[in-house]
Amino acid sequence: MKAFWLTLPLVCFSAATAATTSTTVTINAATQSACQFDTANSSPTIELPDYEAALANTYSGEQAQVSISVYCNSGTALTARKIGGSTVATTKQNAVPVTLTRDGAAGGPTINTLVWFSAGGTNTVASGAFKGATRYVSVIRSGWPQQAQFSAPTGFYTGTVDFTVEF
Q1: How many Å apart are CA 53 and CA 55, to the nearest integer?
Q2: How far apart are CA 6 and CA 111, in angstroms?
Q3: Which of 18, 38, 87, 116 ranks highest by number of CB atoms within 10 Å?
Q4: Is 109 buried (19+), middle (13-18) or exposed (0-12) by CB count in 10 A?
């Protein structure tokens, strides 16, 4: 039987510790003005009552409305509200005309309605997803014009109008 000898080297490491140094890193950020329409009312709709041309002269004021909330980060103010591009459509007398199309089909019979807005209350949100934001409420109003529209046949009519806020 043969024997082999194996010699293993021993390695020694120093017990010294690594040196350290540190510095403070400054982090800067700027916030931009931001506003967002209330996601709980992502499809605001006004349901007007049935129109009767023979009663057109009795349609005064609004016939229906919907409230829309806009949330802005603290310190951001709305500088303008517009309906159909108009900042002065705040009464029925200054309303924006909106054409509704029968059954929503392009080229179909149409009927006109009037749309305007009013600024509602403003408050700071106390809790929830928009906590700390400023809430701006606008009420979008719609009514029938007082001129008879006998050319509009019976049916369901649909149309849209843009409501815009500037900040």
Answers
A1: 5
A2: 103
A3: 116
A4: middle
- State the pLDDT at residue 18: 79
Strands of 134-143's sheet in order across: 35-37, 64-72, 134-143, 110-124, 96-102, 157-158
Task: Quick: pLDDT tens for 57-114.
Answer: 999 999 999 999 999 999 999 999 999 999 999 999 999 999 999 987 778 899 999 9
Token pair listed for 116: 């305007």
The answer for residues whose C-beta is within 8 angstroms of residue 114's C-beta and 6 or more apart is 92, 95, 96, 97, 98, 142, 143, 144, 145
The sign of the dihedral angle between the CA atoms of 43, 46, 50, 51 is: negative
The token duo for 75 is 């310190």
The dihedral formed by the CA atoms of 47, 109, 162 and 92, expressed in degrees to the nearest 10: -70
pLDDT at 40: 86
pTM: 0.80
Q: Express each pLDDT in 121-131 by its tens digit.
A: 999 999 999 99
Select from 25, 38, 13, 28 the least CA-distant residue to 165: 38
Side chain identity at residue 44, one-letter code:
P
